[in-house]
Design goal:
Structural class: alpha+beta
Number of helices: 7
Strand order of the largest sheet: 5-11-6-12-15-14-13
Number of domains: 1
Oligomer: single chain
Distance between the termini: 36 Å
Largest sheet: 7 strands, mixed
Order of helices and strands: HHEEEEHHHEEEEEEEHEHEEE
Length: 329
Amino acid sequence: MATLGLNGLSIVDLAKRTGPDGKIQRIAEILNKSTPFSTVVWKQGNRDIGNQYTVRTSLPAGSGEKLANGSVLLENTTTGQGVDAAYSFERVSSIEEKTWDLQEDKAELVMSESIPFIQKMREDFMNALINGTKDTTFEGLKAKYNTSTNMRTVIKAGGSTANVQTSIYFVNWRPDVCYAFSPKAIPAGLRIGETKEEATFTTVSGKTYRKVLRNTPFKLDAGLTIENHLYAGRIANIEHSTLSATGTNLREKIIELLSNVESVEDGAPVLYVGRKIYTFLRLQLDAKTNLNLSMEEVANGTPGRKVLTFDGVPVMLNDHISLTEGVVS
């Protein structure tokens, strides 16, 4: 059975461990609800504004010993350190005074008005996971896997026309290798502020008008760490307008990617695809032209709900994967 989010904390688990606040818990459950966001494994970062990790940069060469009068070479390994920065996704829910006064259950009103903002923050994170850069949010998969040079997990599908390409992205989520993180001491990376009354004043034709709002701020503080780049990858240069009816080439490329990553077994592997590729794969499944595809009920998923899988790896729709990517060299 395929698995979503195995071997690591979901954002709901992390909320349970970091704070007893019922509002935060409910919001975390909304964020985790049966979407690509639920595939992400979360971990508490070790810095106030980011996460520091250690990468082993060399292994021992190894030596043997003769049974008589032999000696063993003394060796050590080398390591390096990396730091990933977090980004603060922020939204503010505003409720007008008249609406506030008419509602008896103020807490429920705040929650119902806040849900769309929370859902948008979830989408903002999934966009950053794919398209983020160090200058905008945090470095996402497209930026981390932007060349095939010395990168065996970047597979080129053959497209050569600029700005008409798309990609398939792969992550084997593990709390010790590939994970999203919330900065140190911030519950689940998500904070809900106190709902406060705030007044604004507008002057029109010499008259000043006062408007009262009840504003609730939300923040999702998050980043992405990939300690071993071989646990994630990308099929780039998919010229989506020229995909064959049978999709043989695309099938072969997915097999190539899954064969080149370090592992698809000891974690929670996921393939992220855009809507056009997702639809194409579903049509292949229906036409029975791709025997690698199936619909499976996944562990840690919604009970009774089946997801598309490729050789047992869940295929998740992410609408933030563009159809206008450039050509990867």
